Amino acid sequence: MERYLEFNKQTKEELVKETWGASCQEALRHHNIEELFDNMVMADEIAFRWGADLSAEKPERCFSVDYESADDCNRALFQPYCVNGKVNVYYINKKTKTVNPDFVNFSDVCDACYFFHSEHELDAPEVFEERPYNSYEEFRQEFKDKMAAYLPDGFDWDSHIGRFNYACLT
User: Fold this and answer.
1) Residue-wise over 7-23: b if at least 16 C-beta within 10 A, else e?
2) What is the tens place of the pLDDT at every residue in 26-49?
């Protein structure tokens, strides 16, 4: 988030005020900027600019972010789609029952998390009509186009792209 704000030459306060407009002053009487920003992210009220669009004068494409605090998440699990450059499947060959030595199962996520969603859903009924992505590389490229400018060089995309399951306590 810090790098995002730095690249877009904004502070959290400026982004909150830009999004909330005139009602921001009233909200600031009851909350600090950090709380307002986190609440806006959790409520999907902030649209973040694709890094690939940084040179454009006006944002053409935006993405949203979901945030779950460590206090709100109970039994959060993550499994990467790719490991060591290969699809993360249990069996390399289902017929011979050859187990993949690099397979990574779901693991606990204990810290607060930001979730970035793909443009196309992978578990919606539409996937039976049309493939949302032609390959994993195309899928990964979407995330690179959105966020590469905001992340360090050498960021390990494959270890951060995958399936996430969690239950929230209310």
Assistant:
1) ebeeebbebbbeebeee
2) 666 667 778 888 777 777 777 788
